[in-house]
Amino acid sequence: MSFGSELQDIQAVNSYLINDLAFIQEFRDTIKERISIEKDYIHKLENLQKKCSQKNDKRGLTLTVGSVKLPNGDTVIPKNSTFQKSYDKFLKKFEESIKDRNDYVEKLNSLSENIKLSVVKKEEIRKKHLDYSSRINTEITNMCTEADKNETKFREACNNTDAMKKKIEKNEDEKSKKIYDQNIIDMNNKMNMYILSIKVANAYNDKLVNVENKNVLDNMQELHESLVEYYKSICKDYLDSENELMEKLKSTNNKTVDYSNKIDLSNDIALFIQYNKKEWKSPEVKTFATIPLWKTTGDIYTKDINAITFLRNTSLKLQQNLSIIKDDINSKNKELEGINSVYQTYKATPSFGDPNEIYQKVVDAKKEIALLQLEELKCEVQINAISEAIGGTEMEIIPHNFKNKNFIKQTVCSCCGESLWRKGLSCRECGYSCHLKCELNVPPNCTKQKLPKNKRATISSYPSSEKKSISTIPTSVTVSQLSTYSSKSVQPTSKTKNPFLEDDTDDDDDDVLDSANPFSSSSDLQIDLPTMIAAYDYTKQINDEVDLHAGEEVTIIEPDKGDGWIKVSCSSGTGLVPANYLVPSNSSDKKEGNYTTSNNDYSSPFMEVIKQAKVIYDYTGQMDEELTVTHNDIVTFIENSEPGWIKVKNETNGRIGLIPESYVEYIST
Ligand SMILES: [Zn+2]
Ligand SMILES: [Zn+2]
Hints:
It is built from nine helices and 13 strands. The chain is elongated. It has helices at residues 3-6, 10-59, 62-65, 82-170, 174-261, 265-276, 305-348, 355-390, 605-609; strands at 402-412, 419-427, 433-434, 531-534, 553-558, 565-570, 573-578, 582-584, 612-615, 634-642, 645-650, 656-660, 664-667. The two termini are 100 Å apart.
């Protein structure tokens, strides 16, 4: 089956070929566009490569030996790190890959040029075929025209012969007869000419249409086939070049990977160490700075009973802290063990998740343990030093069982003899009362029975005559305030760790009141501020304090935040004064908010103004009537149900219950 044997329409086949050629031309345009994309890309890659190289030059030796200054201002060292070398190779391979891309562009360019030339040639062939076809048509037309002309001539001759015949029939003469004979000859000749030209025209038609035209069509088919074959070859060339590029890139990239696999970490680390090693500096040893006037030495002073009492109390407290820390370390270690085994499981089974996240937890736990161990060391060093200085526990120790207490009425510190008001300590067993700051100076000589009030004062020396046969340190000592180890890393989660919750309520003393002091919570209140009266003169010691004059009324700006200081406004200005220098104001002025702490009613007018508070620590309710709150919850104050505890409504979930007051911060409404 071929065009020649099946088709006759040269024009249809001609447009088919024109479309073929246009398609090849379009394919060439595609390649040209591909070249321009590649060139743009190469341009961008070149810029990137240049940028990386410049950065690499600027980086100098930082990947090799860090930013150490080389001796004699050298900028080059004899050997580079394998890390740096690997990156240098990376940049070199990057450059090579750009070259490969340029080669690729070159190939596409020559392919495009080749197509251009081929299209021109094929176009010429197409035209030749078409020319030959039209030449054939012209020949046929010419032959037909000639036959038509011969027919006309023959008909003219016939007419002439007819006319002469009629003339002779009328008047037969010799001359006419001769002309008539001549006409007959002429007519026959013309007829023969006509017949011959018809034969030639038919022969031409037969030959040109049936043979030559078929040949042209077959040749045109051949051209079409060659164009398709040509497309196949250029398409292959085009894609082959791309594959070739890919192969080159792959091999270049593999080499780059090989270089990075050659990084020798231990070698590089040794190189860095070599250039960064400096003389080992021992940590600074602190020495005691002696003061000649007092003849101080670096030894712990143990020459009087007060000092020994202080040291012994300090040691006791440190031992309490130490046991808490040791417990914490133990539980942290158990936690670490757990995390570690989880980590090992994750490492062994990657489908569980990212082991690195677990590893971070391991690191965190180790850090927490290390910090706890520092606290442990801090306690142990002090305990050992004290024990060395004062010897074994030869002395009997009967520690007081202190609790926090709010002294509402003016009383006297049994230790230092000074006025004691508001925050202080009281022994549960003997009733001994003292300042928080005096705790460590109190001799551990609890009588274990309540003395009449008038005999409680000033037992400040250590009565060695009252020795009792208790030689071990009781473990039930109440550490009223963990001043050394203040659970910095541990959020208060249980009642026993919260100093506020140790207030004793079943106290039968009439001179103290464990009522909630509205000032015991720190808050910035935008209300009419309460007033108090200065009980004593006070002379300011440092800048942020003010002088007090006994008897003057002062306005409370900021209540005691737990440090024993109140910010007031008074005749000498605004500043801090010791809380225990102030007594409640009894003024009966119009202010409803006058502050009367002798009132047993917890919901003082001052409290009524406070409506809401923000939770500052998570608290998990331990008993039925307690509430669980979360950091940043807003609670609405309902009442002070017992000292240190407030009844609130949790605005987050509407639940009502008790929470420690110290877990919230009041907010003004
Ligand atoms: Zn005191
Ligand atoms: Zn006592």
